[in-house]
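Hello again, I could really use a second opinion on something today. My current little project is about how a certain protein chain folds up. You're getting the sequence in one-letter code plus the fold written as tokens. Here's the protein in full, and shout if anything looks odd to you:
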Amino acid sequence: MGDFVGAFALLQRSGRFLMVQNERVIGGAPQRVWDLPGGGVEPRELLREALRREVAEETGLALLTTPRLAFVQEGERVAAGVRQYAWRSFFFEVEAEGEPQPGHEVLDVRWMSRAEVEAECAAPYHDSFRQWLRAGGAYFVSAWRD
């Protein structure tokens, strides 16, 4: 796999964040995890275009506002002590209309309180999101080691 560039949505309603459920392999085992809606930027695609596309694909929602950059996460995926790839993920605060429905790329959708995010979002790459929730910030460095 090559390096990854991603765009992710921080959608909030009534103090809750919209999360999508995915299946990932973490520590060599498949796990269901809750993630923010979003994903990879395709060739020749701008961040805002990727964000709109990913949110629509995963939740069926249309974004109403211009994305506002909240923070950037840069990280590395390491397996057996060797860097497999690096990632750069851009997280944007946005608003959307409608009720989310799980798209073909995700297993489920759910609005989560900050406490639920803290309790349920424990994948290695969630560290920056949880840190941003606790104390804010604009740039985070992360590592996913298996």
Observations:
- Residues 47-59 form the longest helix (13 residues).
- Residues 4-145 form a domain with the Nucleoside Triphosphate Pyrophosphohydrolase fold (CATH 3.90.79.10).
- The chain has a mean pLDDT of 96.
